[in-house]
Structure formats: structure tokens, C-alpha cells
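Supplementary Methods. Inverse-folding protocol.

Structures were first reduced to a C-alpha cell string of length 795. This string, shown here, constituted the complete conditioning input.
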């Protein structure tokens, strides 16, 4: 009985003890949770922003706000060798304890008491992380805090993440923290490429960072390193061969500098706020082009042209492979730190391929269709060609090859500036989108803002069947997969499914590619000798107003290359032009990155076809077209009307009077073919003394009411305000354009007859102050009215 009673009592005490232990543990756990909430873990770490190339190598880095090199080591960069070495060195039981190694702490405490001083520590890797997150003086109370923080770390993170935190915070002397910073600064490589000897050398520094400095105390570091290597040899942690190789490896490292490559792009990408930015830069290509641009810019300094920028885009992946923002980033005298690739500049004629491609898609033009290159006035806007001459009738392809301005303005007028603005907005032209309410016809000649980044991305559509995809600068960027914007061109088989935005049809792109890839062009650079091995490319040049910016942008199947040359000060240079300054650099870049490439060219797409057209108009031949050529067109889209350039007219036997069917006499007339000449071309022919056969004046006895083809007043400009010197008033010119059937015009001022004159003759008058109505009536009774406002001032 007594034994049974004692046994029951013992079991009861054991149960009570277990309950107390459980309640105590639960209480401590709840207390930990409470303290964890009240005193959260200070684990917010600011890392140095690093930029890597397409292979993951660091090419640029930035100091933290506290001026530390603290580069984040990713879990993928913690190689098995690095992990094993650090754990063997710092905490063998790292994967087995809950953040605190109690046995090691008790052993260290005993040793310290017996020695009456601190002889050894028992900090685990987790506790070392806690100490680095919250540095404090080494006291017993702070040790307890450190233990608490270690438990917090183990509660919040897994073991691999804690090891990562340790490798990111461990000090290596000076302002170097983390194994990645040390690896790059001391050995010039990423931590996953370190050898056993290099890892061990780095592992001994944190214990004595002020007395073991690589580059100053290499002999001491090697001695300490070898001590650990021999210990691991005796413990058989590593193979004998690994130890022997590590012992034999010399330590010749010293503190280097952090790479500061691709500076303008790095500064641009740093704004993303990410710790590690994995760029798409091909470093080998980048370094070649940086030297090429620097050398080329040096040859232009005699012309006072001092800077250039280059972007290379991969047309398949849409990745930016090279980004040169200036000729020399270190050259402060010429604004080397300015990012010329991102600067908003006037694009010159570089938007013309997009314009003509849009006109093709709108059914306005085909390559062989003619446009008038003659003087024009759009409400006071009078564009001029680069050489200030006119060519009369030109084909669209000729106008694009020769970069004629007036045909481009005429085409934009027909298309509508809003269409072009919408397409540019689709392609992320930010300044154009911002200024959309202010832009007009002058934008096609450079009267808008664009960057080299935007223009290079735009030209990539010609290598991607008309699809625009936002250029990718980092591997973390996602390719634009947005559907095309409303009213944008779409293929007949439905929405674009290949990603990006549809800007032009494949057929329009193919036609533009055929035009821009011709080499017998006036913008081919003078004395260019190295075209033998130049890959086939298409390109377009541009020169901004005042010769401040020279552009040349080219592409083939592989790459799109954008070139800007000029001065960041915006000073105009007479010798500056896209053809002679920017294009040679473009050709040199292509020779560097795609030397002697004979890759196939763009194939004709299915939505493109060939037809015969009249050589004079580019339209399908009419009844009287004698000469025809072939031309590309888009079925059911391109103009289908027949050429009516030549028309059969009824004229008198002496060919001095023409008749219409209303006034055609029963006898005494004949039929004759006449070329139809619009009023603008008639003025051009007469001004340049070009012979042509005009249609005889219409029968003056004809009673038909003429309601079309009335005069167009070109001076003064309708709706304009004129300031006239009160003391010396100058007369205002009266001038109009009329059809070739008009011989005389009559001018009226404020409904009062003023003067009659021959068609096309200039008249002058001095207006009264205030609103003035001006009327012009031709000899067929057709009338046109305009209004101007006149103000007299003292000048």
C-alpha cells in the first residue's frame, strides 16, 4: 500500500511539474509574442543600388545614404562553397539551434568566469545578425536583448534568409559591408565566383576589421586564413586537394573601385528604387561603342561639334543592348554628365517615315504616287525645303528619299496632324502627348519634342511589321502587351495577338523599308569608304531647325540603332547635318556590331501587292496613259481611281476657246488632249518659265453657273492681324490663285470695288484701321471672301 501511495504521489507531482513547465513555456511564448509586437525587429536595411549587365556582372553601384557600400547578396549568389565555409567558420550548428546555442553560451560563460575576463564568445550567426541590425555596447543586458532579437529573427525568417542577412551585414572594414561588396571591391567578382582561399580570407576579417585590411595586412590575413584551412583539413571538412590548392593560392588583392560603367543609364534606372537592377546591357558592345563615340566626337571638335549619343536595340527581344548618353561622362567642360539619349530635342525630318507609312495605310498614297513640291501657304505657315528650291511633281518615294519638306507638309495636311499625334502617343512620345493641343503641320519638320530613346523605339516598328513594343532596359521589365488604341490600324484577321501595339500595317512598313534601304540617296554621307562590309540597313536622317541636332536612325532585322550628334548647349553649327555628321557614326556602329552580315532582308507581306500605274500620277492607268510602271499597293486600301491627268477637251479650231457640253456648238470645234494643271502647278510653271499647254479660256458666252474652282486668296492671310506703321504705312499685297480657265480677277475692299487685274497679278492697297473684308471674284463669277484686322501703331 505504501509503495503504491508513493507511486501515485510521484506521478501526481510529475504531472504537476509538467503542467507548470507547460504553463511556463506558454507564458514565455506569449510574453515573446507580446514583446515581439511591442519591440518589432529593426530589420529594415538600406542596400546600395547596383546595376548589372545582361550576364549579371555589376557594372555600376551607388553608395547608401550613410555612405556605405552595402550590396545585397541574393540567395542565388550564395554558392554551396560559400555557405559551407561560412557555417564551418562561424556556426557549425546553425541549422540545428533556434537562434541561440545554449551549450556554447554556457561553455563561454564558464571560461570567461574562470579567466575573469572575456576570452571567448558564443554568438551564433543569428545573434551576429541581431547585433549588426542593432549595434550596442557589449554588456550582459545587451546580450539578453541580442538573444531576444535572435529569437525574433528565427521566428520571422528561415535559415537561408538569416544566412543571407548575415552575408549582407557582416563588416569588412572601412565602409564595406556584406560579402558582395567585399567580393567586388577586393576581388572584382561576384561572391558565387570566389574560391575557397578567397572566402576564407574574407571570413577572418570581420573578427578584426581594423587590423586585418586587405591590401595592407595581406600577410596577417594569409596566416589567419591558413590556420583555419589546416583546422578544416584535420577535421576533414574539405578534401585534401581543396585544402592544398587553397593554401597555395596567393593573396594579392587590394581595395579597388566599384564599377561606374554606363553612367547615364545607371542614373536613369536608379530612380526605380530597386536594390538590384538587372539591365539588358551587353557590356562588351557597350565598351566598344563608348570608345567609338568618344573617338568619333574628338574628330568633330574642330567643327565645334562636341557630343553624341547612341542607343542599340535588339529587334527580337526589344532589349536595349547599348546606351551611350554622351561622348565622355567625365568631361565636365562639354556637359559630359548630360544624358543626351533622354534629352528632349527637335527631331528634324525623322518622323517622315511614320507619316508616309500612315498615309499609305489611310489610302492616300503609294510609293509611286505624285505629290506637288511647289510653294504653299497654310494660313500663314509657309514651309520651305532644305535647299529652298522646288521640284514640281515628285513621287512619294522620291520625297522620302530626298527628305523634301513641302510634300511632307502636304501629306500631313491630307492625313491630319491628330492622326500622327495619336500614333506618336501610342509609341510613348511624352512631350508630343503633353503638347498635343499646340502641335500643327510644322511638327513633321521637327516642330515638336522627342528623345533619342523614343525615336529609336519608334523605328523598331519597321523591323517588327509595324508593331511597337516598349524598349526593355532591365530583365525585370515586362514587354507591352496592350491592345492597339482605338482607331489604330488593325490587321484584317482581328486584334494584334503578338504583343505590342499596332502602329502601321505590314504592307506599309515593307514599302517604307524598300525606300529607306536604297543607297543612291542624297543623304548618303560624303566620302564614306567602308561600305563593303556594311550590312544591309535602312536609315533616315534628320537635322533640326538652326542645325542644332543631327539625327540618323537605322535598322535591319537584328538591330535598331539611334544616333544623335550635336552640342548640349543647343548652339547651332553650320556644318551640322544628319547626313554628313550622324550617318557616318551610324555606319560605323553597324560595322562594329554586325560586321559583314548577309542576313536576309524583310520579305514582302501577304497584304502587299503589285500593280501597274501611270508614270505621271502613280494611279492606275486611265484611257490616255501611255507610260506605265509597277508599284506596290494595298488591295482595297490604296487609291483605286484611274489616272485623269490627261483629259479630252472641246476647243475651237484655232484653240483659243474651250467649250463645255452646255455651250458646245453644233459645228466648228475639235477634240484635243490637255494635261490638267492645278493652280499651284500653274504658278510654279510660270514662275520657273516651264513650258506647258494651258487649257484655252472657257467660252465667254457660256451661261453655265460656275460654282466650283473659285479663287483662293493667298495674300493677305485670312484671320490675321496686321500691324502698320502709322508714320510710314506700307501697302498690303493682294494675290490669289485661280484655275487655268480664269483670265481676269476683280478685287473688292469692304464691299467696294477696288481694282481689276490679270489672274496671278499682284495688287497693293493701304487698308483702314479695324476689321477689313477683302473679296476676290474671277471672270466666271466665282467669289471668295476673307477678313483681316488692321492696327496702326507707332514704330
Amino acid at each position: 500500500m505504501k509503495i503504491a501511495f508513493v507511486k501515485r504521489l510521484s506521478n501526481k507531482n510529475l504531472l504537476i511539474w509538467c503542467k507548470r513547465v507547460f504553463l511556463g513555456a506558454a507564458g514565455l511564448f506569449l510574453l515573446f509574442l507580446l514583446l515581439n509586437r511591442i519591440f518589432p525587429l529593426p530589420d529594415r536595411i538600406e542596400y546600395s543600388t547596383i546595376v548589372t549587365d545582361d550576364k549579371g556582372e555589376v557594372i555600376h553601384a551607388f553608395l547608401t545614404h550613410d555612405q556605405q557600400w552595402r550590396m545585397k547578396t541574393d540567395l542565388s549568389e550564395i554558392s554551396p562553397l560559400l555557405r559551407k565555409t561560412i557555417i564551418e567558420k562561424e556556426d557549425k550548428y546553425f541549422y540545428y539551434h533556434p537562434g541561440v546555442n545554449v551549450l556554447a553560451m554556457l561553455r563561454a560563460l564558464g571560461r570567461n568566469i574562470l579567466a575573469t575576463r572575456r576570452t571567448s564568445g558564443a554568438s551564433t550567426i543569428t545573434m551576429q545578425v541581431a547585433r549588426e541590425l542593432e549595434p550596442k555596447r557589449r554588456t550582459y543586458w545587451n546580450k539578453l536583448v541580442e538573444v531576444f532579437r535572435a529569437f525574433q529573427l528565427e521566428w520571422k525568417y528561415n535559415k537561408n534568409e538569416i544566412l543571407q542577412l548575415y552575408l549582407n551585414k557582416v563588416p569588412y572594414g572601412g565602409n564595406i559591408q556584406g560579402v558582395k561588396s567585399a567580393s567586388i571591391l577586393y576581388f572584382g567578382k561576384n561572391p558565387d565566383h570566389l574560391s575557397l582561399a578567397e572566402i576564407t580570407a574574407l571570413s577572418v576579417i570581420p573578427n578584426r576589421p581594423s587590423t586585418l585590411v586587405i591590401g595592407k595586412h595581406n600577410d596577417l590575413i594569409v596566416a589567419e586564413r591558413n590556420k583555419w584551412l589546416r583546422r578544416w583539413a584535420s577535421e576533414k571538412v574539405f578534401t585534401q586537394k581543396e585544402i592544398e590548392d587553397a593554401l597555395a593560392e596567393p593573396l594579392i588583392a587590394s581595395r579597388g573601385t566599384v564599377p561606374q560603367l554606363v553612367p547615364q543609364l545607371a542614373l536613369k534606372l536608379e530612380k526605380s528604387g530597386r536594390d538590384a537592377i538587372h539591365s539588358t546591357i551587353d557590356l562588351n558592345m557597350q565598351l566598344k561603342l563608348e570608345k567609338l563615340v568618344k573617338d568619333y566626337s574628338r574628330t568633330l571638335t574642330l567643327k565645334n561639334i562636341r557630343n553624341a549619343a547612341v542607343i542599340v536595340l535588339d529587334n527580337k527581344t526589344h532589349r536595349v543592348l547599348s546606351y551611350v548618353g554622351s561622348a565622355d561622362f567625365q568631361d565636365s567642360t562639354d556637359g559630359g554628365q548630360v544624358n543626351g539619349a533622354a534629352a528632349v530635342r527637335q527631331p528634324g525630318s525623322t518622323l517622315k517615315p511614320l507619316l508616309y507609312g500612315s498615309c499609305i495605310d489611310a489610302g492616300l498614297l503609294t510609293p509611286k504616287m505624285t505629290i506637288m513640291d511647289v510653294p504653299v501657304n497654310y494660313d500663314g505657315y509657309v514651309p520651305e525645303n532644305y535647299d529652298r528650291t522646288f521640284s514640281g511633281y515628285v513621287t512619294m518615294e522620291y520625297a522620302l528619299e530626298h527628305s523634301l519638306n513641302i510634300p511632307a507638309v502636304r501629306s500631313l495636311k491630307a492625313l491630319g496632324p491628330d492622326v500622327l499625334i495619336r500614333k506618336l502617343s501610342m509609341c510613348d512620345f511624352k512631350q508630343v502627348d503633353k503638347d498635343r493641343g499646340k502641335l500643327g503641320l510644322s511638327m513633321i519638320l521637327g516642330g515638336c519634342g522627342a528623345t533619342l530613346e523614343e525615336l529609336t523605339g519608334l523605328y523598331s516598328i519597321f523591323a517588327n511589321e509595324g508593331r511597337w513594343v516598349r524598349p526593355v532596359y532591365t530583365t525585370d521589365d515586362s514587354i507591352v502587351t496592350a491592345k492597339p488604341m482605338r482607331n489604330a490600324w488593325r490587321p484584317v484577321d482581328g486584334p494584334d495577338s503578338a504583343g505590342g501595339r499596332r502602329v502601321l500595317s505590314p504592307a506599309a512598313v515593307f514599302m517604307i523599308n524598300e525606300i529607306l534601304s536604297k543607297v543612291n540617296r542624297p543623304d548618303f554621307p560624303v566620302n564614306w569608304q567602308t561600305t563593303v562590309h556594311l550590312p544591309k540597313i535602312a536609315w533616315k536622317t534628320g537635322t533640326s531647325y538652326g542645325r542644332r541636332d543631327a539625327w540618323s536612325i537605322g535598322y535591319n532585322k537584328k538591330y535598331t540603332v539611334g544616333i544623335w550628334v550635336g552640342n548640349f548647349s543647343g548652339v547651332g553649327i553650320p556644318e551640322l547635318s544628319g547626313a554628313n555628321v550622324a550617318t557616318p557614326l551610324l555606319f560605323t556602329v553597324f560595322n562594329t556590331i554586325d560586321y559583314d552580315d548577309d542576313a536576309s532582308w524583310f520579305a514582302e507581306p501577304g497584304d502587299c501587292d503589285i500593280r501597274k500605274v501611270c508614270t505621271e500620277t502613280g494611279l492606275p492607268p486611265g484611257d490616255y496613259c501611255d507610260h506605265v510602271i509597277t508599284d506596290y499597293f494595298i488591295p482595297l486600301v490604296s487609291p483605286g481611281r484611274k489616272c485623269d491627268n490627261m483629259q479630252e477637251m472641246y476647243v475651237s479650231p484655232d484653240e483659243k476657246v474651250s467649250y463645255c457640253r452646255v455651250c458646245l456648238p453644233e459645228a466648228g470645234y475639235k477634240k484635243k488632249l490637255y494635261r490638267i494643271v492645278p493652280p499651284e502647278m500653274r504658278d510654279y510653271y510660270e514662275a520657273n518659265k516651264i513650258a506647258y499647254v494651258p487649257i484655252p479660256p472657257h467660252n465667254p458666252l457660256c451661261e453655265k453657273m460656275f460654282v466650283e474652282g473659285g479663287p483662293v486668296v493667298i495674300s493677305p492671310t485670312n484671320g490675321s492681324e496686321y500691324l502698320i506703321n502709322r508714320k510710314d504705312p506700307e501697302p498690303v499685297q493682294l494675290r490669289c490663285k485661280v484655275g487655268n480657265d480664269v483670265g481676269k480677277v476683280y478685287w473688292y475692299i469692304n464691299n467696294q470695288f477696288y481694282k481689276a487685274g490679270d489672274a496671278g497679278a499682284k495688287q497693293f492697297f493701304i487698308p483702314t484701321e479695324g476689321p477689313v473684308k477683302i473679296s476676290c471674284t474671277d471672270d466666271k463669277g466665282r467669289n471668295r471672301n476673307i477678313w483681316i484686322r488692321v492696327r496702326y501703331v507707332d514704330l
